Automatic annotation (TrEMBL):
GO terms for cellular component: cytoplasm; nucleus
Alphabetized UniProt keyword annotations: Cytoplasm, Iron, Metal-binding, Nucleus, Oxidoreductase
Protein name as annotated: Fe2OG dioxygenase domain-containing protein
Family designation: Belongs to the iron/ascorbate-dependent oxidoreductase family.
InterPro entries reported for this sequence: DIOX_N, IPNS-like_FE2OG_OXY, IPNS-like_sf, Oxoglu/Fe-dep_dioxygenase_dom, Plant_2OG-oxidoreductases
Location (main, coarse): cytoplasm
Organism: Brassica carinata
Gene3D superfamilies associated with the record: B-lactam Antibiotic, Isopenicillin N Synthase, Chain (2.60.120.330)
Role according to the record: Involved in the regulation of shoot development and salicylic acid (SA) homeostasis.
SUPFAM superfamilies xrefs: Clavaminate synthase-like
Molecular function (Gene Ontology), one example: oxidoreductase activity
Subcellular location: Cytoplasm; Nucleus
Domain Fe2OG dioxygenase per the UniProt entry, residue ranges: 215-314
Length: 366
């Protein structure tokens, strides 16, 4: 047993799932974070629920009932709550979002079956090239990470579905059908959310309609296996998402966001809710009125956690800059323009753990 564990640890590519299944008693050195970067586990926070009666509990993180957007007398109130959540956190959770529980459960089931496949089969999809339309990997990028992270993932382009689905895994046999249904539903939800967020900025709700229809959707399916020492490692390091919006489905709690005081807040697992995170594209488009949320992922000693991050972006070559409607004599552009391809080129040759891509776009006078 000891020889098996040693060979796994010495392997240049060893997935977190393989390490967990092998029964390693401690995480290998390459996963150990410096003390200042280690998580404080066990903390949580309350939620603030926006309902027909407005506030039903007094807490902190917003959960928004999206069904109220379709009620003319309540829409403006919900838009206001979205505005407040985006300004305060760059984050909120949504309930009554229109994605059936059966679709969500099907996607999680397909992901479970995929990550349970023999490692040799998953390795057929492995790649360190961030431009690959379908790739399996571990950590962030196992070939370049100085510190590794306790995560396995499969990422694939998902919109338009007909263009990409044939490249997706054929095993398990249910994967394309179940994950495809969830990807399509998440794309519909994204359109509704980006309209509401545009409206909350005082823009026309269709401000980004063309870019949304021509944009991309990348599905990052993540597996965070049980970890023998969750207090000294992470599933994902602190970062913000480059894209416009991320819709996150999680099987259990593990996401943490950074608040305005640079304190880490554990996001509660709200039954039936999906998490909405603002990305760098919205921060730039809003000229900094909204900020992309910095977040990280903790791991657990007792059980595996799965998540689906549906990453929605403007077209790969589309340059985004602050909306002209938000610029005036008192509000100069605070960011330079960029495209998703610019970001991919940046992360291919830079250490994103020490400098966020969006920081390279900020004007020197801000």
């Amino acid at each position: 047993m000891e020889e098996t564990i040693k060979s796994l640890i010495d392997d240049s590519f060893t997935s977190a799932m393989t390490l967990t299944n092998s029964g390693v008693p401690q995480v290998p050195d390459r996963y150990v974070l410096p003390p200042s970067q280690r998580p404080v586990l066990g903390s949580s926070i309350g939620i603030r629920f926006y309902s027909r009666n407005h506030f039903s509990t007094v807490t902190t993180l917003p959960v928004i009932d999206l069904s109220l957007l379709h009620q003319p007398l309540l829409r403006s109130s919900v838009i206001h709550e979205i505005n407040m959540a985006c300004k305060e956190f760059g984050f909120f959770q949504v309930i009554n979002h229109g994605i059936p529980p059966s679709v969500i459960e099907g996607a999680l089931d397909a992901a479970t079956q995929f990550f349970d496949l023999p490692v040799e089969e998953k390795m057929l999809l492995v790649s360190a090239d961030v431009h690959q339309p379908v790739r399996y990997g571990t950590s962030l990028n196992h070939s370049t990470d100085r510190v590794h992270y306790w995560r396995d993932f499969i990422k694939h382009y998902s919109y338009p579905l007909s263009k990409w689905i044939d490249m997706w895994p054929s095993n398990p046999p249910c994967y394309k059908d179940k994950v495809g249904k969830y990807a399509e539903a998440a794309h519909v939800l994204h359109k509704q959310l980006i309209e509401a967020i545009s409206e909350s900025l005082g823009l026309e709700k269709n401000y980004l309609q063309e870019q949304t229809e021509e944009g991309s959707q990348v599905m990052a399916v993540n597996c965070y296996p049980a970890c023998p020492e969750p207090e000294i490692t992470l599933g994902m390091p602190p970062h913000s998402d480059l894209n416009s919006l991320t819709i996150l489905l999680q099987s259990s709690q593990g996401l943490q966001i950074m608040d305005s005081n640079e304190k880490w807040i554990s996001v509660p697992d709200v039954e039936g809710a999906l998490i909405v995170q603002l990305g760098d594209q919205v921060e730039v488009m809003s000229n900094g009125i909204y900020k992309s949320v910095i977040h990280r992922v903790t791991v657990n000693k007792d059980y595996k956690r799965l998540s689906f991050a549906s990453l929605h972006s403007l077209p790969l070559h589309k340059k985004i800059s602050p909306a002209p409607e938000l610029i005036d004599v008192n509000n100069a552009p605070a960011y330079g323009e960029f495209s998703f391809n610019d970001f991919l080129d940046y992360i291919s040759s830079n250490d994103c753990e020490h400098q966020r891509f969006i920081d390279t776009l900020k004007k020197s006078n801000f």
